[in-house]
Amino acid sequence: MTRSINKPIPHSASKAKTPGSDSKNPLLAEQFTWRLSLSLSLSPLLSKQRRQVEKEEAE
Q1: Where is this region: Disordered (predicted)?
Q2: Which stretches within 1-59 are classed as H helix?
Q3: Which of 5, 16, 39, 47 meets the CB 3.0–4.6 Å disulfide criterion with 32?
């Protein structure tokens, strides 16, 4: 269950960095990327889950 919840995170992060959305609304994309990295660094629980997912995918 947690895997399907955590998996979309990288996709939404890369979507914000695409040149199309950047030229349309660079501030929003920049703010989204900044908020995403901030929430990940401030949430040890989240990064712990991400590490667990990466471990499971590596196996």
Answers
A1: 1-25
A2: 2-6, 8-17, 19-24, 26-42, 44-58
A3: 16
What is the C-alpha to C-alpha distance for residues 18 and 26, in angstroms, rounded to an integer? Answer: 10
pTM of the complete model: 0.27
What residue spans define the domains of the chain? 25-58
36 vs 55: CA distance, rounded Å: 21
What distance in Å separates the CA atoms of residue 16 and residue 34, rounded to the nearest whole number?
Answer: 10
The model's pLDDT over 1-45, given as tens digits with 9 standing for 90+, comes to: 455 555 555 544 555 555 554 456 777 778 888 888 877 677 776
As a whole number of angstroms, the longest Cα–Cα distance in the chain is 39
- Residue 30 CA to residue 14 CA, distance in Å, equals 11
